[in-house]
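Write out the 3D structure for:
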Amino acid sequence: MLKPTMYLLPPGSDTEINCKDITSDFHFLQDDSDPLLTNNYGTDDGLDGASYAFQQRAQNVVNAKFMLRFSDYYDYQMKKHTLAKFFSQKGLYRIRTDAEPAIVKYVYAGNFTVAPTEDGSNTALITIPFDNPTGLKYSLGYSDEVMTYDKALWQVGMNLPTNQSLQYEYNAIRSFKIYNASDIEVDPIQHHQLQLIVRNTTGQVSIYNTTTDTHVSYTGSLKATDELLWDGVNCYVNGELANNSTDFSYLTLASGYNDIKIQSSADLDVTFHFKFIYLN
């Protein structure tokens, strides 16, 4: 029988760790979480009931369960300290499991207890609550990375269409489709990451998504060597903030195919760079 595995990228680290390598005889059992949707209502004095106001996705908790085995009290104390040192770091962890190897969660570790299951036992069952501020999951890879399963960035169950080549970088083409494999709309206002990278053009640029009726427009004058970047709701030229040369609009991507139109003074190269988003 296959043994579940959790991989963790600790705060401030570039090296992902298999949980079994944190200390000896430490095993991942499972993790679980539920999506949370908060309904908000307003009331009026003297009127019965309430009126719907809005909904928002709320943060949730990913409960990860582990088992620790130890030989004696001294081994227990050493391993307990090792786990405290690893899981009590301040900052954001990235976690994923072999059940969804290409889908990650960005979380903060909460308080947990390491204790034998009973007096004299050489086993401890541990539940570590990870706070997930967004309540969402994300693709391990970015949209414009090579979409082949041998790259280990993609998996079954990510809403990716079969037998279709998906493209997120276009050169000198003014009308095309962008596929968003997310469960939900990618919306920069909701702090979803979405970058539009424009190169090799001059003059002004506008990018329209006729599917969501949203757009971005740069009204300045680009040089051929400039790089124009929309990063969420902000616009940059060569790394310098350029919001004052825009109409302060932003672009969203619906789940599924999006019809994109380009209006520009000259042909351009454009890349759509974002992570797919999944309900947790």
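The radius of gyration is 23 Å.
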